Fold:
Amino acid sequence: MTEKFDEVKEVKVDYTRLRVPLGPVHPALKEPISLTVTVRREEILDVVIRLGHVHRGIEALAETRNLIQTLYLVERICGICSHSHTTGFVQALEEIGEIELSDRSLHLRSLIFELERMQSHLFLIGIMAYEIGFDTLFMFTWYEREKILDLFEEITGNRIHHSMNTLGGVRWDLSPSFVEKVNCSLNKIEKSAKYIQEVFQDKTVEKRLCGVGVLDYDEARELCVVGPTARGSGVKVDIRKAYPYAAYSELKDDFSVVLRNTADAQARTQVRILELFESINLIRAILEKLPDGPIYKESVIKLMKKIPEGEATSLVEAPRGELLYFVRTNGKEGLWRLNVRTPTIPNVLGLKPMLIGSEIADIPVTVASIDPCMACANRITVVDQDKRETIVTDLKNLRNRGKKQ
Structure:
């Protein structure tokens, strides 16, 4: 018996949906984020985002330490935004303890805030250049960022975790000669920022970023995204203007809120580039208006003992957006509760509408454009699978549940 193999049969098969896992470890994603992407050919149809891969339990750890120990703990929630976290924490304590600060210490806090915003934005701009394959611009941007880290090192002795804030003031002051050095560095960075702005307006770069990861105005408001992610979609939100803190009530006329309406990756990048110039203007204004006086008024140990039982909420505008701290003290130099809502928590919700309709190759650029910090955003939720219930529990009960199992 012989078989015929020379007959050709044509079969038309429609492309079906495929689920493609990305992360938590992926060469194009700089953060440990896990995405399950449903695609048809190259088009993204749906996205499932899973967090929790680098949860560190900092909120629970804070409840086992005194207030000064917790100050150094919250600084390590994020290396890029370390000053923002300590400011959010000490502002809440100072409200509970009714501690008044000197004008000089408030201005110095604002100075470090704006330097931190600049180095964070340069960090992200470099990442965006890297994601589109522009390695030369990536290296140039990070080289400029080094100038700001050098200033941090001279002011505080640290390049990343500055430890500038303390309860009732700041730990480090500026000398008149160093003020001139800061101004000199700003002039050099401003010149480089203008060059970076020109490069990102190049047609080749624009083709890679324009129309990618679109989050329109209505979706941005509905999802309550914050920071440059919101302002890139035309949403005018900035805590420095809406709820001034530190010295921003005196500096509100020295900067503007940068907005863009195209709502894509290019818009979010442009917002950060233009905010470099606003931060430079703010720092110059701070140095010009820097009042005389002490940088702290009393020993931090004495102040800690005076903090009564109470609770307060503190808001600051971190480089990535609104950062919220809820602090409840126990009156015994410790905490009953610490809750931190970082900017990445709302911003990561915007990734789904940004990615749907895009192509697989756009995922790294889109994710990078919101400047995520996954370690800041990760939380634990306890789910009872039998009862299909979500449980809110404290650290003690969680430990006891583990022992029973």
Summary: The longest helix spans residues 103-131.
